[in-house]
Amino acid sequence: MTQTLTVEGMSCEHCEQTVEEALSGVDGVESASADRDAASATVEGDADARNLVAAVEDAGYDASA
């Protein structure tokens, strides 16, 4: 299953990597990619959207599913 989150606050490649790493640490995530230009992150897997949003917010960014 593919889920797309809106992620605000990414301004550089390092930000994208931080978000991807945060998402990858959530149970059920098979892969994650972040795009600062689109202000979004795409996740493959069956992770709960609330857990994905929480992981991004814990990394210091605003997120919504």
Task: Give the SSE layout.
Elements (H helix, E strand, L loop, with lengths): L1 E7 L4 H12 L4 E7 L4 E6 L3 H10 L3 E3 L1
Antiparallel strand pairs: 1-3, 1-4, 2-3
Protein name: Heavy metal transport/detoxification protein
Organism: Halogeometricum pallidum JCM 14848
GO molecular function: metal ion binding
Kindly report the CATH topology. Alpha-Beta Plaits
Order of helices and strands: EHEEHE
CATH class: Alpha Beta
Strand content: 35-45%
Sheet with most strands? 4 strands, antiparallel
Total individual domains: 1
The strands making up the biggest β-sheet line up spatially as 2-3-1-4
Which structural category fits the helices and strands? alpha+beta
Report the average pLDDT across residues. 98
- Taking pLDDT < 50 over at least 5 consecutive residues as the criterion, the unreliable ranges are none
How much is the radius of gyration in Å? Answer: 10 Å
The coarse silhouette is globular
What is the overall number of helices? 2
Query: N- to C-terminal separation?
Result: 14 Å
GO molecular function: metal ion binding
Domain HMA: 1-64
Keywords: Metal-binding
Protein name: Heavy metal transport/detoxification protein
